[in-house]
Amino acid sequence: MSDITIVTAGDSDRSAWNELHAGFAAFYGVQQTDEMRDRVWSWIRGGQLECRLAFDGAGNPIGLTHFREYVRPLFAARGGFLDDLFVAPEARGSGAAAALIRAVADIGHERGWSSIRWITRDNNYRARTLYDRVASRTDWITYDITL
Predict the structure, then answer these.
(1) Rounded to the nearest 10 degrees, how much is the dihedral formed by the CA atoms of 73, 78, 80, 83?
(2) How far apart, in whole angstroms, are the C-alpha atoms of residue 121 and residue 135?
(3) Residue 1 — pLDDT band, cuts 50, 70, 90?
(4) In terms of C-beta density within 10 A (0-12 exposed, 13-18 middle, 19 or more buried), how is residue 129 classed?
(5) pLDDT tens for each residue of 115-128
(6) Do 41 and 103 meet the contact criterion of CB atoms below 8 Å apart?
(7) pTM for this entry
């Protein structure tokens, strides 16, 4: 599957996005409702979150990424945060994940971002193999406060 097209998610892509986002949630074992997906879609359509979709040569949706700009006060710079990256199981190994990361990196270059950052689960070995090729692993540890 070398014929991959990356597009900005538009109104006509809602059903493709729903399918991929549901697959992403299932991968991480997160129960989602229609209301939750509606909220995230409203963020995408409202500009708080950006989304790119990957389609194979036959026009089938095979991947998605969500990302946003953030400020980096210590460096007086802006960066990109890649919130989500998902490729449908049947398309893994197709190059879709690398193409989605490249698309976000291209956007970052155009916008003058100083870096693109993301997190993944420690046991996400297959994805980490790609991440180790395209980015530098940091020594930062993340913490969450559940509110």
Answers:
(1) 40
(2) 16
(3) very low
(4) exposed
(5) 999 999 999 999 99
(6) no
(7) 0.94
